[in-house]
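Format is chain and fold; as here:
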Amino acid sequence: MSYEDIRFEVGNGIAIIELHRPEHLNAYSGKMGVELGDAYRACDDDDAIRAVVVTGAGSAFCAGADMAAGEDTFASQDPGTFSAAGVDPPAWEVRKPVIAAMNGHAVGIGLTLALQCDMRIVANEGKYGVLQVRRGVMPDAYSHWTLPRLVGLERAADLLLTGRKIKGAEAVEMGIASRALPAEQVLPAALEIATDIASNTAPLSVAVTKRLLWESPNLTRAEVGHRETELHHHLMGRADAVEGPMAW
């Protein structure tokens, strides 16, 4: 697929997906959503890709929906074709870790798409928020599921029902991100994590661990134990399970 609203490159086992509409602060477009989904599928299909980093071009990660259409930005859509998901597949369905390097502002769907990733690093200078209730619509991209999993119902309500913005430090305090760094350090830090994963982990082990991690909130303790045992049987005896102890 030829991309226009994103950039996609792969090297040393790491895919970098850059939201690329810098003249619009990488505001989300329908084309961006389609292209991001295609890039996610490519990452999932390519065994040479071991980790994925999503970032933004220029000074922002994603400024939310492109509202250049003014009053028609949120006009009625065809119920048969419209989805609030933002991207298909979501990042959690990619069998490789997906890290959001949020190098600047991420608001609206810019933040809710990042919530679908496995890890997030934010910029100290950035502003972050799910502003949709201030725009006459509502939070999207599964954020009513992802955000409470990260921060709990009370803090999710604080963000989703007010639409307020927070800075990088508060995003870490709330549990939305693991680190807040100066903007210029965000992408290098994400690439450092991705490089460690690509160099030092077994891909199948990471894939099944990621899958169970996302499934676990909907499972009982006993079901998690059963799944862990099943997946151990799937992994044990394979080449990676031999190489790992021998390398140690």
Summary: The mean pLDDT is 95. The first strand starts at residue 6 and ends at 11. The longest helix spans residues 183-200. The chain is about 40% helix and 15% strand.
